[in-house]
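Database export, one record per block. Field names are fixed; values are copied verbatim from the stored entry.
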Amino acid sequence: MVVFPWLKLNHTDYSIIHFYTEALVRGRLNELAGTDGTAYLLTVFLAFPVMGGICSVIKGILLICKKPIRIITGFVLTGTLVYVTSFFAFVGYIPKPAAIIYAAAILIEFLIERYLADVDRYTSEWEEQKKRERLEKAERKRRLYFPGKYDRMLWKIIKNEILHQKKAIIFMLCGNVILLGSAFSLYALKTQFQHYYSAEALLPMQGLNGILTGALMVIGALYIFLEAIAFYNYSNSHQTRNVLLWTLGIREELSRKIWWYEHGLIILISIIPGFLLGTGMYTGMESYMKRLMNLSIDKFAGVKIYFISAVLYIILSFVIIRVFADMLQENMSLKQQCPKRKSFLTKRNLLFLMFFSFIYLAYFLFRYSERRNGEDISYILFGVVIGGIILLCSVRILVNLFRQNRRDTIKKVLDKIPIQRGAAKELGLQAAIFLFHFVFLCVLVVPLAGNLSAPDPEALFPYDYVCMAYPEDANRFEEIKNQGIAEVHSYPMVRVTSVQGEKTDWIDAANNYYQKVIWPQGQHIGISYRTYKSLCQNLGVAPQKLNLNDKEVYIVYQEDYSINAHPIDWYMNRKTPYLRIGQPVRFYNYMSREKVYPPRMIAGEERTILTGVFQSGEQENLVVFSDGYFQSLTGTEGPTRLYLLKENAKYHKRLQTELQKFVEKHMEDSSWDQLILPCYSKNDKMWDVKMERILKESALILEIILTLLCTVILYFMKNEFEKDERRIRFDMLFCLGMHQKQAKIISNRELYYFAGVPLLLSLLLSIITIGITFHVRMVSISEALYFGTYIFGLWIIYIFIQILLVLNISKKRIKELLSHTWRDKA
């Protein structure tokens, strides 16, 4: 495999080792890709057959040793499949016979293995089917024939049975009402705000659209959680009823009708309360903005918003309920078919899990600490949260195992007897509570505290107008300055464009990410080091001492500490951003991207507002070049002059007229991205910031309320589902001679341990994560103290609510247990 010729590229035969030697060791990759860019891709795809070959050797050794080979086989097939796919996906090279023989051999081996596995499976299934047929035949003999025709009485019985499941009905109604009410109020609010916003974003994750989309995604996730709880409550009675109806001879068609009837009834009942809740929330926001912000919006949302919200709600609800019903049915069938397996939770494995969780957390926290990753929420959810859950579960099980092997007195043994059964169920509840604790303490509190403590919008814009002009506009601004209409500061600039201006999300359907040109491209302001020092001196800010060469840049992010950290270029290797001098390019050969957008080395970064905060800090940041390199930039595309204006109040209307003519003349600069304007007005951008903050705070408050509701429901589940088990255990303990005081201590200790461990772990991880967030956002000490005050205040409120909730549950469960036990004893 390594020695034989594997491919033919540019009329030359290469083995795998020969190709990698020429491309990487000798540095001929650009030369090999000179006529065709396929060589760049071959360095990646040739690694897959190499991996497959190595795994094939390991597979042969494992077969000889009679060890499991399923995972190794998966690696072999994956590597081969990717490589075979590359045959048809890319052109420019010809695979040699060795490559085709290798792929064919792996394919033949796979077919033989599948055939042998299918033979065994078909044989066992045939035997199982014959056994089932014999049982069904015997059952048919014992049962009377029933045609399956029912009258209207059945539907009355089904309706009464649905309404009898009060817990499940309450959960479903709460989830549906909250989803519809929150989505309706936020969508109506965003629609009204859009009339006052300076520009309408086309992508779902930009501007007000991004805030609304993010909020709806979080609310949808919490709705899914509430639906899962409802189905969990509903499953036992639902299964019992289905078994009963099936025994009575129910047909499949009638079973489907019952399913649509019961769930459709719940969804339709929720529409009216949902619209009432949403209308009340929208009306409250309308009066709040009219009273405090003097912003007038429509008192009632339009019929179109009601209709769109109702349609989306019904579709989403039915899809989620259908998916959960299928998952529930499949889970029940698996429980009946799968035999119990020996547990792998040994002390050695749990210690390994603990060590793995620490490594896992350290890796994702390190990745999160890099600004170029833009505070990616995936590092929080899939890194910190999952790592914390693994650590929590492994420590909890390990403690139980150590306690089981200790020799204690009868008093200590009684103290260790758990009140509930099912460690897996309790661990699942603890993991879910930890998840919601961390979501509140870190994911939701940080943006809310940032919004509440953020600087006043007026402080974000030191100038009344910021304009990017061309040489032919010099006379216009010279007249404005000479006539005293405004104080004008003029500096040379260039337009700096990055390959990818914003983080591409899967929901950005309009973003052409998988094509040759990525949209939107980033648009920033390029200035010299001399201009940077002058801008700092205008605002009384101490400039950084820089010694830049021609390939280095210094980034000045124009944002306050409440905005998420982000790189200057989101494309691939963000350590060396791809920056072009000039306007965005509508088309270029993606294989020569480095020629169009040369990679630059970042000499340093800072977060300072020198001209203003535009597009939430994502665009119009300052890119500082060395003075010598900046002077060599001649004949560049786009605006070449930066004008900063402080208006004279007497000539406000006249200045607006002049700048409106300027904007109309250069509207082509907004053709790449409607949020990029040739001239930014302080008043317009201040209103944009205010509306963004209001919409964001409204969404965050709703999400926080839902998160608190989810934690209340989880504690409610623990208290209700373990009621019978607690009663049985306490009966046994009282029969053994336990006193009432000792029973209270055991009950409280178990509840406090259940509630305290997830809260303490989530607090610890939240402190670490927030500290990293401060570092990534380059928050100063004074800003961190002010920012942290709001975070700490919200934490105190949340912890106080959790303490009240736990104390209330503790009081309730002790009252129930002791009253029942002593009543029976009397």
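Remark 1: Residues 97-142 form the longest helix (46 residues).
Remark 2: The first strand starts at residue 7 and ends at 9.
End of record.
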